[in-house]
Amino acid sequence: MKIYDRSGFPNPARIRIVLAEKKLDAQMEFVSVDLIGAEHKQSAFLAKNPSGVLPVLQIDDGTYLSESTAITEYLDNLDGNPSLTGKTPREKAMIHMMQRRAEAEVLDAVGNYFHNATPGLGPILQVYKNPEWTDRTAWGNQQRDKALDGLRYFDGVLKGNA
Ligand SMILES: N[C@@H](CCC(=O)N[C@@H](CS)C(=O)NCC(=O)O)C(=O)O
């Protein structure tokens, strides 16, 4: 199996954590994609993942899988121990719900803040520009506040589970 990723970026890190937990690192070939040079926006990479984002997993039959949740599910189902995506219907649903909540309330908001209220990745990578965003920085800062609220929520959840 091959994983197209980049060290130091959050979504690739999600899969590195899965690989470590499942002890699958040794079976994986890591292919580093030059995000700063916009390699992921070139046709060769877009053929693997039309969304133009990392990570992407290539499995042994040649299929490309993207979306961290789908990659996690695939790797988890190769071998049930430890189980990361749940075993019972309740566990599976709870994990799916919390994962989606973490993406919506924290990860997406952090990305929006980074891209809109900080120098971010620079103009080459800001492929989508909404002309109606008259104050992108204000919106970006609002996303920062949303991410901080999300982190407070997860702090509470984790304290309750300690
Ligand atoms: N929903 C995707 C998000 C992937 C994503 O946004 N990856 C970032 C790296 S952390 C990326 O490739 N960004 C490049 C860009 O947006 O140009 C997933 O779950 O894998």
Q: How would you characterize the overall build of this protein?
A:
The protein is 51% helix and 9% strand. Helix 1 links the parallel strand 1 and strand 2. It has 2 domains: 77 residues, 3-Layer(aba) Sandwich (Glutaredoxin); 73 residues, Glutathione S-transferase Yfyf (Class Pi), Chain A, domain 2. It is an alpha+beta fold and 162 residues long. The longest helix is centred in the middle third of the chain and has 29 residues. Helix 1 runs parallel beside helix 3. The N and C termini lie far apart (36 Å). A 4-stranded mixed beta sheet has the order 2-1-3-4, covered by helices on one side. The protein binds glutathione (GSH). The site of glutathione has 10 residues, from helix 1.
In short:
This protein has helices spanning 10-22, 43-46, 68-78, 89-117, 136-161, and strands spanning 2-5, 29-32, 56-58, 64-66.
Biggest beta sheet summary: 4 strands, mixed
**CATH superfamily assignment of the largest domain?**
Glutaredoxin
Query: What is the radius of gyration?
Result: 17 Å
Order of helices and strands: EHEHEEHHH
| Ligand species | glutathione
By secondary-structure content and strand pairing, the structural class works out as: alpha+beta
The appropriate CATH architecture of the largest domain is 3-Layer(aba) Sandwich
- Kindly identify the CATH topology of the largest domain: Glutaredoxin
Strand order of the largest sheet: 2-1-3-4
Helix tally equals: 5
**Beta-strand percent range:** 5-15%
Unreliable runs: none
Counting DSSP E segments of at least 2 residues, the number of strands comes to: 4
Q: What is the mean pLDDT?
A: 90
Number of domains: 2
CATH class of the largest domain: Alpha Beta
Shape category? flat
